[in-house]
Design goal:
Oligomer: heterodimer
Strand content of chain A: 15-25%
Helix content of chain B: 55-70%
Distance between the termini of chain B: 38 Å
Radius of gyration of chain B: 24 Å
Number of strands of chain A: 20
Strand order of the largest sheet of chain A: 6-7-8-2-9-10
Number of strands of chain B: 2
Radius of gyration of chain A: 26 Å
Shape of chain B: flat
Largest interface: A-B, 65 and 52 residues
Shape of chain A: globular
Structural class of chain B: mainly alpha
Strand content of chain B: under 5%
Chain lengths: 571, 308
């Protein structure tokens, strides 16, 4: 099957041959723009039915061509959940939202009521059935969308990055609900996901997509891991990359399996203190160098309340030094984005003081603050309003004295961000990763001292995340202070230095990522979980691989020594 | 502008518990009568009960936002009408704008006409406020889908749902443009308008994207796949019949007064202070005040509430 969107020259799907079996949990992986969403749309019949375009070949559902099945009958078999829950909600209350699809499909009133009751109980939504959808948290909204699809009991559930906006706890809840449906009800699940660490272990089969084709289709994780290490390492979660990178033949895919392998390598108590990762050698050199810098962001006991009356920030104090990379983490609705808006002046604290580069921000207009503090929102599209990439960058350089200076500097910025070849294109026509890069180039062109980022990795694939992470570390090294809001634990573990935990508007704790992430249950990366109780302070993949190699080396040395001791004992 | 003024919120009072078609009928009767009335006293007699209904249903705060908007519109109407209307005979004062040109006469009649039309606008805006605050769009869709008009109402519901979203997006994009060093409130009106151009451009493109995503989600959830069913019809209670009866009385009173010519008012060329039909006017006002009266009674007595 091949498919091409209307007015596009390049097909989004190319010669796909695929058979999916009943009851399978299929994980769809691959870079942004590789065709994951289009494949889900094709299975759901949304392309070409809703989007138009040209579909060559056939899709069969229970051996009947999809085109021969009426819309309603097809829906009764397949249900699709899209990425952004907010944009799928139509009705005012949760109950009405769940009932919407059932009413559309002509279910009887008695059956509608029963299905609402059942699905609400299964997804823990019973208490909020009468609640307005606008007042729900991000996780609850995603559950409501899921419930509205599950209510008609489709045989195949298609999910397009359903956890991309959720904090780790809410994402875990959603994925557990999906796994239960697969195991208890035999529902066929096809899940497209970028954050593989959350769901890799749940899948029976993994499909890796590349440029509109299926590059790998494996049920054996060992084979998949070996293929991925040769072709596409980014499609593996960090626990698998850890062991695959150390040439293990059997690759663990879950934390439990990974810990089992580690324990088999060295039983408890077999580790010498030299394995501790808390030694400075493991830590980011930049962190140590920046410890004497002056703070450029000083937040002193700030309180903030929205006009509607809800108190969002309570007695928050922290600071960020020049060249420091700090991250605000915590559940959805904790007040993280509100902190960023208080810092750049979009919101003003009711009490407390904020100093940016030593200057009290009170009364300073946002436009003036923008000279020293740059802000990149969740959706970079909001930032891009000019017809070409070059003009976006030039717009940020208008403070420069002459036109020649602006031209020269904008060329330098475009080159530095690898955007020279895209300079004349409309930013809105670029891929998500490229748009993110253009927005960053526009933000950083004026060389601000502080950079604020709100969920910059949302919707980015591993390759783009790595690119972003390396770039942020580069500007960190140049002395820019970075404060980022993120739910992406793996990204934070790899690239950030300091973590500040916020919950219910209060600061819970803050410190080095090694202290914060290694002592957390949900907000810790996979490698930390694998080494928990075995070695302390392991946070990055590089650290974990280095430690694993040392364990292997130690074991290889120990085996002959133990054998000698044993032989001596026998004698 | 606060997006909350377009968002329905559940409240525990009699007006919120009415059948959506009862509340819609109330809003329609007020709107239709306000369009055929010219007499300021008759228009005021419409404004009074609908205002009472809003206040008693707990939406004074939202209504005050509507009022601010309405008053600013009325001022603009009054200024323009006084500047351009030449029909009034009672000249309040003359303005010599340019030397050598005829003076501009500002008349009492033009001011009164603008005030009368402003009052009408106020009634209509207040009725819309009641519609957006007191009718649950979900119930409305359900009620009217049963009458076979689902698509039209769905379009209205989508529009009313997307408007607050539109305002939220506008605010977010304005904030981001400020973060890029653009002060949207600085400079003269032309400069401010020029600065809004890119904001409007992003707003429209993101609204189109959102509309497409919502449409795809609706299609994927079976909208338009065939005949719809209804999980449950809204209940008709004695309170609905009481109010509908009162509405019929009020509507006939209004039509009678209109037929008798009592609702007309001569603004030009000179104001004529004629007023007739006080009995009909009182009956109409009292009938339209029945919802707020019942709501007041129910707040004081639970047994009264259970009876109706």
């Amino acid at each position: 099957m091949s498919y091409c969107y209307p007015n596009e020259k390049e097909p989004a799907l190319k010669k796909i041959n695929l058979t999916l079996n009943e009851g399978e949990f299929v994980l769809l992986s691959g870079a942004s723009g590789s065709g994951k969403t289009t494949l889900l749309r094709a299975i759901a019949g949304l392309v070409p039915d809703f989007h138009g375009g040209h579909l060559a070949g056939s899709i069969y559902l229970d051996q009947i061509p999809l085109t021969q099945i009426p819309h309603r009958q097809r829906l009764l078999k397949t249900g699709i959940v899209f990425q952004e829950a907010e944009r799928q909600l139509l009705m005012n209350t949760v109950e009405a939202e769940i009932a919407f699809a059932l009413e559309n499909l002509g279910f009887t009133p008695a059956l509608i009521k029963r299905r609402i009751m059942e699905v609400a109980a299964a997804l823990d939504l019973t208490d909020c059935l009468q609640q307005a959808t606008a007042t729900l948290s991000g996780g609850q909204k995603q559950k409501v969308v899921l419930a509205s699809i599950l209510a008609w009991e489709p045989e195949i559930l298609l999910l397009d990055e359903p956890t991309s906006q959720l904090d780790p706890v809410a994402a875990e809840q959603i994925l557990n609900s999906i796994r239960r449906l697969n195991e208890d009800n035999g529902l066929t699940i096809i899940l497209a996901e970028q954050r593989l660490e959350r769901c890799f272990h749940l899948a029976d089969r993994v499909l890796v997509m590349k440029n509109g084709t299926i590059a790998c289709d494996e049920q054996s994780f060992d084979k998949l891991s070996h293929w991925a290490m040769k072709n596409e390492p980014s499609c593996l979660p960090s626990v698998a990359r850890l062991f695959a990178g150390c040439a293990f033949s059997n690759i663990p895919v879950s934390i439990k399996e990974g810990r089992g392998v580690l324990r088999s390598l060295a039983p408890q108590g077999d580790f010498s203190p030299s394995f501790s990762a808390a030694s400075t050698g493991f830590r980011n050199k930049l962190d140590a160098e920046r410890s004497f810098e002056q703070p450029v962001v000083e937040v002193e006991k700030i309180w903030f309340r929205y006009p509607e009356g809800k108190e969002v920030l309570k007695d928050i104090s922290f600071n960020v030094k020049a060249g420091e990379f700090a991250v605000l983490m915590g559940p959805n609705g904790a007040g993280k984005s509100t902190i960023l808006k208080n810092l750049n002046g979009l919101l003003r604290p009711g009490r407390g003081k904020i100093k940016i580069c030593g200057r009290d921000s009170k009364g300073v207009p946002v436009a003036e603050m923008a000279k020293s503090i740059a802000y990149l929102p969740q959706n970079p599209d909001d930032y891009l309003f000019l017809p070409t990439v070059r003009e976006e960058v030039r717009f940020s350089l208008q403070h420069l004295p002459t036109k020649d200076d602006i031209n020269k500097h904008s060329d330098q910025v475009l080159q530095r961000f690898g955007l020279s070849s895209l300079a004349q294109l409309n930013p809105r026509d670029l891929s998500s990763g490229e748009r993110q890069r253009v927005a960053l180039a526009a933000v950083l062109a004026s060389e601000p001292r502080v950079l604020l980022l709100d969920e910059p990795t949302r919707g980015l694939d591993y390759r783009h995340k790595e690119e972003l992470g390396r770039f942020l570390q580069q500007i960190q090294a140049e002395g820019t202070a970075i404060l980022m809001v993120s739910h992406d634990v793996e990204f934070v573990a790899e690239y950030a230095a300091k973590v500040i935990f916020i919950a219910d508007g209060s600061l819970l704790c803050s410190g080095s990522k090694y202290d914060m992430l290694s002592s957390s249950t949900f907000y810790s990366p996979q490698v930390t979980k694998v080494f928990r109780g075995i070695a302390q302070g392991i946070v990055t993949l590089e650290q974990a691989q280095e430690l694993l190699r040392r364990i292997l080396h130690h074991r290889q040395e120990a085996i002959p020594r133990l054998a000698c001791n044993a032989r001596a004992g026998e004698k | 502008m606060n997006e909350n003024i377009f968002t329905y919120r559940v409240k525990d009072n009699l007006i919120h518990s009415l059948h959506p078609l009862t509340t819609l009928s109330y809003v329609l009767v007020i709107t239709i009568l306000s369009l055929i009335f010219y007499h300021p006293l008759y228009l005021a007699a419409l404004l009074l009960p609908v205002s009472l209904a809003i206040v008693s249903s707990g939406h004074y705060k939202e209504w005050s936002t509507y009022l601010k908007f309405a008053v600013s519109l009325i001022i603009i109407i009054a200024v323009l009408n006084m500047l351009f209307s030449r029909e009034g005979e009672t000249i309040l004062f003359s303005l010599q704008l340019l030397p050598g040109t005829a003076p501009l006469d500002l008349s009492l009649e033009a001011l009164a006409f603008a005030a009368g039309m402003g009052l009408r606008l106020l009634v209509i805006i207040t009725a819309f406020c009641l519609y957006s605050q007191a009718i649950d769009p979900d119930h409305m869709l359900r009620a009217v889908a049963g009458l076979g008009k689902g698509k039209t109402v769905l379009a209205i519901i989508l529009a009313t749902r997307l408007f607050p979203q539109f305002l939220r997006d506008y605010r977010r994009i304005i904030e981001i443009s400020q973060c890029r060093g653009v002060d949207p409130y600085k400079g003269n009106m032309w400069q401010r308008t020029c600065r809004l151009k890119p904001v409007i451009s992003i707003l429209f493109s993101s609204s189109l994207e959102q509309a497409l995503e919502l449409a795809e989600s609706m299609y994927a959830r079976g909208y338009g796949s065939g005949a719809r069913s209804q999980r449950q019809a809204d209940l008709w209670r004695p309170r609905d019949f009481l109010i509908l009866l009162a509405l019929i009385i009020a509507f006939f009173c209004g039509i009678l007064a209109y037929g008798q010519g009592w609702t007309a008012f001569n603004y030009y060329p000179r104001l004529s202070w004629e007023f007739s039909g006080s009995g009909i006017l009182t009956l109409m006002t009292l009938s339209l005040a029945i919802p707020s009266g019942l709501n007041w009674g129910c707040k004081r007595s639970n047994s009264f509430l259970s009876k109706i």
